[in-house]
Specification:
The protein is mainly α. It has a four-stranded mixed sheet with strand order 1-2-3-4. The model is unreliable at about 30-55, about 70-90, about 105-110, about 340-345 and about 410-425 (pLDDT under 50). It has helices at about 1-25, 35-40, 45-65, 115-130, 155, 170-180, 200-210, 215-220, 235-245, 255-260, 270-285, 295-300, 315-325, 350-355, 360-370, 370-375, 395-400, 405-410; strands at about 145-150, 160, 225-230, 310. The radius of gyration is 41 Å and the shape is elongated. Helix 9 packs across helix 11 (about 270-285). The protein contains 18 helices and four strands.
Length: about 425
Amino acid sequence: MFVTRRALVALFIIGFAFCLLVVLIVNPFDVPTNLGATNIFLSPSTADIISTDSETEAEDEVKKSKPEKKVIDLAISSPQPSTTLYPHGKKPPAQPKPAEPEVKHKIPDSFQHVKDTKDVLEFVHRQCKKYNRITAAPGEAKKPRMLLVPKDWREHMLVYASNPKTGSTSFKKWLNRIQGSTKPYAEITGVHAMGKYGKFGEVFDWVEQDLGREAQLSDAVKDLYKVVAVRNPLTKLMSGFRDKILRRTSTGIRAPAMLNINPDLTANSTDAEKYAAFAEAVVTGKIVNVHFTSQWSKMKICDFPYDIIMQTETTNLQIKEVQEHTNTTQYEFPGSRSEQGQDSVATVHLAHEFYSKVSPEVMEKIYKYYRWDFILMGYTKLDNPNFPYLDFNQDIDKEFGYLLTEEDRNFGSDLALDDEESPTDDSP
């Protein structure tokens, strides 16, 4: 019995030493603190509890390492204006729209409003036919107020119908470059003298030799690329005012016409106040000038077979098409005065400023005076979101139909307008 008891003690000691040796072999450096090692001495339920606590502590450490999501009070997250649609703190402020990628264009936003040449010509022809504005016989043409060809017209086969206050100065400087002028555009002057360009009579002679008979205008221009530029009547009238009145008088007032409209005008009056009197004087016949008259008739929009009707608002984009058709791509087109910062009359901001002093009654007279420019070419009123560009989707009858007179509906009363104007009066 004694021997057996000693043997049991020895076996117990040997067994304990063996277990301890196994633990040391598995993890010889972390025996005192490793709970996993002491689990062999604990009941299963106790081990489970310790293991679970260990995992919870590990998760807590992970949570501490992550930044907390702050709760933001959107009502006070950004400064609010002194006046707002909603009381302060009652509605989250509108989130700012992400900035659109910058697209560089010479004329801001105009690239979005460039119309296809075919669409423009079809729209104009459709409107001319709908409103019975075509007066030329089929196959014939009526001459616009001024047609220009470059001296070497056979090489470029280009004819330009000069419409004042639509960028005609820039176009004529470009014609001078085509003809060989090497001066910087800023130094090219006297461009409105007819003698600087080719003789249109030579075109007739050339065509008649080919036909063996007297040539008509439609015959002479048939093989030429026929170009004209037009402009929204509202900004075109503004351009005329700034050039012919503000720049060419000491007071910005053309007496007595403007003073008869507003006797209180002085040199210190605002440009908008002067413009209101000027515009009324034009549409009531007190100021008459080729620069201020409607375009459709003097440029024979319905009676001349144009290949392209450019818009001043988008000329610098459309001119590329002209260059491709006339072998002139090597001649850079000059920037307009508006691009050079000298004349910003095409801007919506300036238009709203100038027309803010024009009474509603006079505004209606302006729309009536230029009704055919709007109706036939698709230009927009001041309150149209697409102003001053073309808008073929607007309801023309709704916008302008009420301006038509009974005489208009029975073939119109403006057909002879400007036919007798001097072809040499074409200053910009």
